[in-house]
Every structure is written in structure tokens, then in C-alpha cells.
Design a protein that fits this description.
- This protein is an alpha+beta fold.
- It has a domain of 122 residues: START domain (Alpha-D-Glucose-1,6-Bisphosphate, Chain A, domain 4).
- The chain has nine helices and seven strands; from the N terminus they run ααβαββββαβααβααα.
- It has a seven-stranded antiparallel β-sheet.
- Helix 3 packs across helix 8 and helix 8 crosses helix 9.
- 19% of the residues are buried.
- Required for the function of coenzyme Q in the respiratory chain. May serve as a chaperone or may be involved in the transport of Q6 from its site of synthesis to the catalytic sites of the respiratory complexes.
- Belongs to the COQ10 family.
Length: 264
Amino acid sequence: MQSLRPASNSFLQTATRTTPALSCRTALAAGHQRQQPRRHFINPFAGPQSLLATRTLPYPSKLIYSIISDVGSYGTFLPYCQSSTVTRTSQPASNGKTYPEEAKLVIGFNGDVSESFTSRVYCVPETIVEAVSGRTETQLSPDDIAHHSARSQNSNDDASRGDTVLTHLMTRWTLRQYPYKPPPASALHPETVHNNHHETSEIPSQEKTDVTLAVEFQFANPVYAALSSAAAPRVAEKMIDAFEKRVRAVMEGPGYVAAESRYK
């Protein structure tokens, strides 16, 4: 977002030297130039802001998905999220598990703003976790989310429609697993294989997961939009960072994460 700035000294000096013979067309052009910063100030809030981040994590997709779908724990580790409460759960999916269907979150910026809102949550087991609020509708296939109840069009029945903090919100996590198999030991250490002709051991394969986070949001209040715009470019990356640390804490223990942070 380009912020408002006062006119430069050179512009003021040029205006001072303008002669009375300045034509109407030139005057209108000068006035038009002075109005341009105002349009730049308004444009960032004319529609939803979009953020996208991707990362490959060296952890199993099932573990990562279990942490992302644990919406009730977001308040303990997710940036800008002060608290999170699951207010409704789904019917059992094809795998027999239930998932969050509605959640209330409290978010804060710079310690000055704290607001709550409700999101409708959709979980495609082991693949997608999506949250929508305001006027936003899910684009997921009905067959993929058959275990979730239909979303009411009435804001009195659906709190995610009635909140006014966000007129538009769509957060979608997408996971794609693939097994990573390193090259054979002979390619990494050919001298070892040459000296030990009977050595055939290879480095074990490692499961990795592609994680993509897409966020679209628009605040109803332009003041909140202005406050969030400074942090917005890094929000998606910070969220993935937070989830990666959460996965490490689960797999390797919280002490590992605390020790690692001291050396960064």
C-alpha cells in the first residue's frame, strides 16, 4: 500500500513560478496530479487482499494435517490469534473421524486492536482445511464435504455470516504428500562402496509434504484494513512458520524448538 505523502518541494516551487497565463487545461492537469495519491490510498481496500505461501516440510502429511485441523489449539501458537474455540463439529467422515465445523477466533494487531469473528470450517480428510466467513462461500465439492452440514443463508442461524469484522475471509490449507527417496549411498560416497564391495546399504526414504496456504480477506472497517496492511505481506509465511514449529514440537519435543530459537 502506498501511503499519503506531502507534495515535494520541487512541486511547490514549480507552482509558485506559474504565470497567470496558465491555461485551464494545465490547471486541471495539475489538480488531477494532486488528487492521485488519494486514489492510491483507497484502492487497497476496494477488494479482498490475497496471500499465498508454499513450503515442503520433512514430515508425514497425516501429522501435519492433524495439527492444521486442530483449530481449537490455534490460540496457543498461531500469530495474531489470541484464542480459538470450536463451537460445532461435523458428522463422522468416511474415515470415522469428526472435524471442526465452526470456530470462534479472537485476533489482534499491534496490541491495539482485538476483535472476534466466527468462521465456517470445512475439512477434506488428510488433504484440505478451509475456513470461510462473511459473504464468502466454499468452492469445495459437495462430495468431499458431505460430512459437514449445509451452511445456512440466514445470519441469525450462522454466526459466520453475521459477524461484521470481516466481510470476506477464505483460508485454505492444501496438503500433498510424496515420498522422498535420496540417491543411493554409492552415488553419495562412491569411495566407500569401492573399498567395501559387499556394502549395499542405502539411505532410507523420507516422507515429505507440500503445504500450500492461500488466504483472502477483507475487513469491514477501513481502519483495521490499514492496520493490517503493514503485516499482511508476511502473514502467510508467519502462519506456515508457526505450524512447522508446532509439528517439530510434537515430533521432537518442545525443548528442541526452544533450543533452536535461541540460535536464530
